[in-house]
Amino acid sequence: MARFGMAIDTKLCVGCMDCVVACKTENNVPEGYNRDWITEEALGKFPNINLEIRSERCNHCEDAPCVSSCPTGASHYHDVGGVVLIEHNECIGCKACVASCPYDARFIHPDGYADKCTFCIHRVEEGKDPACVSVCPTNCMIFGDLDDPNSEISKQLNSRKHHSLKPEAGTNPKIFYLT
Ligand code: SF4
Ligand code: SF4
User: Fold this and answer.
1) Which atom of ligand 2 is nearest to the CA of 108?
2) I need a surface site. Which of 78, 133, 148, 156 has the fewest CB within 10 A?
3) Using one digit for the tens of pLDDT, what is the confidence trace for 49-70?
4) How far is the CA of 148 from the centre of ligand 2 (A)?
5) Cβ neighbours of residue 55 closer than 8 Å, sequence gap 6 or more
6) What is the pTM of this model?
């Protein structure tokens, strides 16, 4: 069974926000909310400071506190690729998952349920890339199976330095930033 993740090349990302626009359009994300966003962070010490530009979203954590904190089972690991999803009909809008996510990746949709990035599972199940990946003009995002040693994402992670966000949170994120 696949284990889906994403690698994002911080050397190629220019912060153009095409991924943000594509996600909002593809997923009909309501005005004032975002499932993905751009973060700029200065890393290192003067005079060796490096500006890292990152396209961020739900990390589809392997040990996701949003799943373990959900009282109804609405937040769950999907059979396909272990993607973290929300069953809207089972969500009571209690916000336990929103509070538990170390990455601020979730919000309560105006219709009353928790919402966030789905890795565009509806596209992935049709053999397509997530919308953000497909529109990036610099091809800085690679989506694929972390358990397949021949996948492009596995090759990149095996050959490049990378990091994930807030490893100290113990969530085992499946988004990796290539540096
Ligand atoms: S990033 Fe947040 S919302 Fe996404 S799986 Fe991890 S804890 Fe859950
Ligand atoms: S807001 Fe919905 S998905 Fe989140 S913990 Fe509550 S019931 Fe579960």
Assistant:
1) 1
2) 148
3) 989 999 999 999 999 999 999 9
4) 32
5) 8, 13, 19, 20, 36, 37, 38, 132, 136, 140, 141
6) 0.95
